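Rather than argue in generalities, we reproduce a single protein record, letters for residues, whole numbers for local backbone shapes, just as it appears below:
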Amino acid sequence: MTPEELVRDHTVYSCVMGSRAFGLATRDSDTDRRGVFLAPAPLFWRFEKPPTHVEGPADEQFSWELERFCALALRANPNILECLASPVVERIDDTGRELLSLRDAFLSQEVHRTFVRYAEAQHKKVEAGLRREGEPRWKPVLHLLRLLMSCRDLLRTGELVLDVGEERERLLAVGRGEVPWGEAERWMERTADEAGRALSGTPLPAEPDRARVEDFLVRVRRASALQPDPHDQVLQRVPGGGLGGQP
């Protein structure tokens, strides 16, 4: 079973991400797709394990195997948590619906550390570009601001909402380079401070509900193990396949 076949035949959830999910799409925006596939349990019984992620097969498409996706979500990975909050779902089955029902189990106060740390890393890259080229790359500045706003609002409300709403035009102006760098940087600092203050009164729990997520994963794996083994189907097509043939 190729990686492409795993994505094609075993995707449980796929969505649109990027500008189209954030309410920042323009006429020239790409369509970024992200997904989660469930590798059949028998594939884990062999020496060669199924991939933890697959890039493609279409352009701008990336998918994670369910266990890897859950592990990253429990660590409050911003990209993963945002996938669970996408307003544009393209494909979903019963397993995918249960995964989405666990959104609150993945959320914790850890989001402050991971979101802000990611924003700080992007800020350093922007500053390096500014020193090198005399001007920042404005698209990363836009998304850095968006991420900090998302973190602040998540800590305030306990809910992750991707659409930037009424901040759309202001953020797009940043992306077009129409906002002076100093003003954009002060906006970043102010939003980061607001996120820090929101942490003290957040409704989010201190830690994610790992046990609840693990229960889901074990049940899904057990159900998958009861399905026909893809390897057995291959053996049935091979003359003399199986353990009873000649050594």
User: Anything to note?
Assistant: The chain has two domains: 3-107+208-236, 110-199. The radius of gyration is 21 Å. Residues 243-247 have pLDDT under 50 and may be disordered. Residues 128 and 136 are 8 Å apart (CA to CA).
